[in-house]
Amino acid sequence: MNKCNIEDFVRKFNENTVFVDHSWNRKDTCWSIGDERSYIESVSRNWVHGQPINLVNIKESLRYCQEKQPQDEQSIEYYQDLLNKGYEYIAIDGQHRTKVLQRFINNEFQFNGDFYDAKQNRHEISNKLYREFPNDLKNYISGTDLISVHIYEKICKTELGNMFIRKNTSRALNKQELRHALATPIGDWIWGVGRKHEKSGVTKLFIKPADISRQLDDEFFLKMLLALNVSIDSTSPSSYDLKSSTLDSFYKLGVGGPESIHKSIYAKIIGRSGDILDQTMTVVEKQDIYKASARARIPSKTMWAVLFACEYVYDHGLQIQDEAKFFSEILKIDQTLCDKSQTSYGKALELYDQELASYSPGGRSPEPVKPKAYAYYHRCAELPHQPVNRIRRKDELIKSIKRKHKTLGLTKPTAAAA
Q: What is the sign, positive or negative, of the torsion defined by CA atoms of 218, 85, 200, 211?
């Protein structure tokens, strides 16, 4: 294990020499400014020497694969490509800590809080850049080995994701972050979808920023992807739910074996679904009811309604003339169905209570059966993870959409446009 001061660490291990593979690493936005300041304080107190930055030496791992694993063409090609791009290391654990140290030394954020010197005396720092620190504190930072670095060699590409999971087990990675560590084509695709819509700003219309930073937007897109590709099969209904275990299994389909095979498996899934997801995000982006600056976000049940509506549009070769109007009308249709459903459910409960009051055990009339809430639209709208209820809700929604093409602004493309 190597130890070095912060300035030497930043000179040697930076964005030019260390590659962060986002096919399994966590997002860069995972730490808040409070987290960053807290980490710098911990560094000053020499509390992080037992928490090394973990890296993989690209050159040595390439040599190992060439000599000991010559059949592993995927690893050899991967490492050679990174070397050609000038990288020397791959980040396994510590990408956020590394970026914080870089930002601190490069005067990219102001430190505010307690900072400790070489004798562990406390100094109150109020919104100062590193260059504005007192000289004795800067000398302490530049002259003391406070950072530990563990560099691994002889590692194959397929082991990198597992290393990340093992190193982060104590960090409470959420389910989606663990899935993302599996290097699969579907993982790459979901990551790309998530980053595209995060960059456009549309994701924050329905997902909280704190949840986006933990990749829960990716999990939402994953659920939509599965929902667009499932059908009810009485022989194995559990295969089509959106439970965490099902999402895990879907990601793991791409682990191991020739990558080209996995890409062919996912090609059929991704093609149609990608187009529908893009159309859904376009509608959400152009709607004018929910604003990015407002606290209120688009409810999950509304997002599912828009997705089902866009699926119908896509599968029937229709065009949306006005996305904002389309969103507004889908919202109205969905709310009307929910209102009618709740009214019907309420009446059914009243009838049940009346029948139960007059019911006599042993009499001629059968015992009343209490109505099941999940059989009604408003309740189905709250249960998208359950395939039967998801399909029941979608079918009811589509029935209404079919009767309102004109109101929704749906048209068939003209011959010239087609």
A: positive
Q: Is the dihedral of CA 6, 155, 248, 311 positive or negative?
A: positive
Handedness of CA 204, 195, 12, 166 (dihedral sign): positive
**pLDDT, tens digit, 9 for 90 and up, residues 331-373:** 999 999 999 999 999 999 999 999 888 888 877 788 889 999 9
- Identify the band that residue 143 occupies on the pLDDT scale cut at 50, 70 and 90: very high
The two tokens of residue 305 are 């309604």
Q: Are 289 and 328 in contact (CB under 8 A)?
A: yes
Strand partners for 19: 90
Angle at 53 between CA 186 and CA 14, to 5 degrees: 80
Q: Is 127 left (phi over 0), alpha (psi -120 to 50) or beta?
A: left
- Is the CA virtual torsion 308, 312, 314, 318 positive or negative? negative
pTM here is 0.64
pLDDT band at residue 72 using 50, 70 and 90 as cut-offs: confident
Q: Give the DSSP letter of residue 318.
A: -
Instruction: Count helices and strands (H / E) in the chain.
Output: 18, 9
Mean pLDDT, residues 243-249:
84
> Which residues are within 8 A (CB) of 380 and not within 5 positions of it... i.e. 6 or more apart?
374, 389, 390, 392, 393, 396
